Amino acid sequence: MIELPVISEESKKRKKPDWLRVKLPVGKEYAKVRKLVDQHKLHTICESGNCPNMGECWGAGTATFMILGNVCTRSCSFCAVATGRPPEYDLDEPRRVAEAIQLMGVKHAVLTSVNRDELKDRGAEIWYQTVIETKKLSPETTIETLIPDVKSSWDALYRMIDGGQEVVSHNMETVESLYRRVRPQAKYQRSLEQIKLTKEYGKRTKTGIMLGLGEKKEEVYKAMDDLAAHGCDILTLGQYLQPTKMHIEVAEFIHPDLFDHYREEGLKRGLKYVESGPLVRSSYHAERHVNV
């Protein structure tokens, strides 16, 4: 049985530290994207996920779109996305997403999706066509695809990453010992293998890990070593925040100094780029990761 940290009643009631306060989004570029999103009723993860970096990213011309619906076949304990059998599969979605990206004038687009385990190809064809259509309408726009676990369906993986995107990301989310609690339908080694095969396919690789779930420093170091050994180029580290009372609790608020330390350690251990900070999310500064 996996031992997890015991969280006191006092820790449950404590307030977020000052370093997790977020500035209100401002700027001309942000206002422009905000207006287009409202006018055309576009769907971005930036909004639905209440991302703390929305203003900064939109100001830099970066936005994140979710494809393949909003119902996930997984039930991860950290994620607020609805769980169940997805009701939709829209063959016209690639065109609509590409048009939205063109309309918004996005310089760097991040595409992500729910898990579609019920589909034989895991949604790979929609992934492929979305990248193809986006490149057709916005050839200067760079693309990162944040793809789900394909459960070792490697043919699906290769189709998913063959559209011409510059970066392929797949989030590990946490350290190995916490997988059963945090990602019960995923496997640590399988996600590492997916990153390795993506790298061998010739893609720039990226992953993200949440901190504050009860992991130990040595476990974070091991995850970094494992990622470097499996060909991961870019790592993002950010503070986990509990989306609702139904989700796994925060075990610890990680101090910014420790995030700085982890950045240095990741670089020492062979990762090419480490984005590390309390408010860092998977797509934070994503436009910088294209040329790493």
TrEMBL record:
It comes from Echinicola pacifica. Belongs to the radical SAM superfamily. Lipoyl synthase family. It is an enzyme of class 2 (transferase). GO terms for cellular component: cytoplasm. GO terms for molecular function: 4 iron, 4 sulfur cluster binding; lipoate synthase activity; metal ion binding. Keywords: 4Fe-4S, Cytoplasm, Iron, Iron-sulfur, Metal-binding, S-adenosyl-L-methionine, Transferase. Its EC number is 2.8.1.8. It catalyses: [[Fe-S] cluster scaffold protein carrying a second [4Fe-4S](2+) cluster] + N(6)-octanoyl-L-lysyl-[protein] + 2 oxidized [2Fe-2S]-[ferredoxin] + 2 S-adenosyl-L-methionine + 4 H(+) = [[Fe-S] cluster scaffold protein] + N(6)-[(R)-dihydrolipoyl]-L-lysyl-[protein] + 4 Fe(3+) + 2 hydrogen sulfide + 2 5'-deoxyadenosine + 2 L-methionine + 2 reduced [2Fe-2S]-[ferredoxin]. Binds 2 [4Fe-4S] clusters per subunit. One cluster is coordinated with 3 cysteines and an exchangeable S-adenosyl-L-methionine. It comes from the Bacteria. Pfam families: LIAS_N, Radical_SAM. One of its GO terms (biological process) is protein lipoylation. [4Fe-4S] cluster 2 binds at residues 72, 76, 79. InterPro entries: Aldolase_TIM, Elp3/MiaA/NifB-like_rSAM, LIAS_N, Lipoyl_synth, rSAM, rSAM_sf. This is Lipoyl synthase. Pathway: Protein modification; protein lipoylation via endogenous pathway; protein N(6)-(lipoyl)lysine from octanoyl-[acyl-carrier-protein]: step 2/2. Its cofactor is [4Fe-4S] cluster. It is found in: Cytoplasm. SUPFAM superfamilies: Radical SAM enzymes (SSF102114). Residues 58-272 form the Radical SAM core domain. HAMAP family: Lipoyl_synth. [4Fe-4S] cluster 1 binds at residues 46, 51, 57, 283.
